[in-house]
Amino acid sequence: MQLMTRLQLVLGRPFRRAGHRTALVAAGLPLHLAVVPLWLWLLGTMAALVPAVTPLPVLLTLVVTPLLTVGQRRRYRALVGKDLPRPAVPGPGRNWKSAVRRLTTRALWRQVCYHAVAGPLLAVLDLAVLAVWAVALVAASIYVWIWALPPQWRVTDVGYTTQAAYVTAGGLALLFLGPRLTGALVRLETRAAEVLLGLSRTEKLARRVADLAESRAGVLDAADAERRRIERDLHDGAQQRLVSLAVNLGLARATLGDLPADARKVIDEAHREAKEAIAELNNLVRGLHPAVLEDRGLDAALSGVAARLPIPVRVAVDLPQRPSPTVEAVAYFVVSEALTNVVKHAQATRADVTVERIGETLLVVVADDGAGGADLVAAGGGTGLAGLAKRVASVDGAFSCRSPAGGPTVITVELPCAP
Predict the structure, then answer these.
(1) Residue of 275 and 227 predicted with greater confidence
(2) Torsion sign, CA atoms 80, 86, 92, 98
(3) Nearest residue to 216 via CA among 326, 359, 324, 381
(4) pLDDT attached to residue 152
(5) Cα–Cα distance between 395 and 327 in angstroms, integer?
(6) How many CB atoms lie within 10 A of CB 342?
(7) How far apart are the C-alpha atoms of 30 and 34, rounded to whole Å?
(8) Rounded CA gap, 227 and 293, in Å?
(9) Contact 68, 34 (CB under 8 A)
(10) Contacts of 66 (CB under 8 A, 6+ apart)
(11) Highest-confidence segment of 137-151, 210-224, 320-334
(12) From CA 194, how far away is CA 74, in angstroms rounded?
């Protein structure tokens, strides 16, 4: 039983997809031959020296090319499940400029090349493969044909059965060869269609870049939303519990006056630790995603950052409308980290922060009058200036730092800001 099953698998393997592939070849034959009459007409007019008629076949070819391309796409999708990506086409328009743009696209002329040059050549191969199938089927069933003939037409020559056996063997051999020829032709046609009817290498790269940029934007938005969720959970959960604990400890310290000195010392220590934990949690929440940024925007959030610094900081924000939450968060963290670096390393006495929108770009400038000498290359990966540059690059922004020895230091950030 197992031997019969294996034998059936071995014998039936070449024919599993032969039907769909042969149907693909047969359906492609009329599409491949559709342009041939037009080009024969063109050759005839050129040979007859009729210049007034010569452009007509070319124009008709350009007209039917999109229709034939649609037919080819449907053929591949319906019979082998292959989707050919559509190249980008110029925008709609009815003036002569839009028509010229359509006629000069590389995609259109690749399609013309497919239908006018590759199509007839593939049609010859289609006919050859279909002929192999026809001959194989007729030869393999030669005894059936002999039996089906009327008695007066039957072959009665001596040895005709031996000859029929040879023909049957040849037909069976062609039957096993047919799927391989059909598969090779389908692969050739699919490759030609992908190259000439699909996307070019440049278009594939451009579409891949666009897909990656879109997926990266989705990841950034998801990460920003997750930071917001963590900030809300900390603010509404752990922070409120710590505040309640600190209040209760404060009440206990104030109302329980007859406690031993050791117990009062423990309560005082716990109260101080609770207040320090609240302050640290506030800083953590602010570092994740400050609530004021979400509620009131960059102006209020950056003003809050400047107010907490030990040096005077002038903040000027000019935004007619708020940017996207992701870009807004990047701008906030860049300014916050840059000002932190100013306080820690620059030895500056003042700093200026300017945020404005110019067209579709959010321009952020952070300047200080410190000692200068900040080096983006020497900065450690993921920290300091290098970390700021990576954060800006995550949204396709531009980061530059000009910091000559002796100062001043000017950090300029340009963030894409869609209208």
Answers:
(1) 275
(2) negative
(3) 326
(4) 59
(5) 7
(6) 24
(7) 6
(8) 13
(9) yes
(10) 108, 111
(11) 320-334
(12) 14
Residue 125 has pLDDT above 90, yes or no: yes
Q: What is the pLDDT of residues 227-242, one digit of tens each?
A: 666 666 666 666 677 7
Query: Cβ–Cβ contacts within 10 Å for residue 40, how many?
Result: 11
* H helix or E strand, kind and range, residue 217: helix 201-233
Amino acid at residue number 312: P
- Pair 354, 339: CB distance under 8 Å: no
Contact residues for 390 (Cβ-Cβ < 8 A; gap 6+) = 382
Residues 6+ apart with CB under 8 A from 277: 242
User: CB neighbours of 215 closer than 8 A, spacing ≥ 6?
Assistant: none
Answer yes or no: are the C-beta atoms of 270 and 250 closer than 8 Å: no
Q: Specify the pLDDT at position 396.
A: 82
Using 50, 70 and 90 to split pLDDT, how confident is the model at 383?
very low
Q: How far, in Å, CA of 350 to CA of 96, rounded?
A: 60
The model's pTM is: 0.54
Q: How far is CA 21 from CA 173, 185, 195, 271, in A?
A: 19, 9, 20, 80
The whole-chain average pLDDT of the chain stands at 78
Token reading at 279: 């302050």
Gyration radius from the chain CA atoms: 39
For residue 348 the two structure tokens come to: 């500056």
Q: Rounded to whole angstroms, how far apart are CA atoms 60 and 66?
A: 11
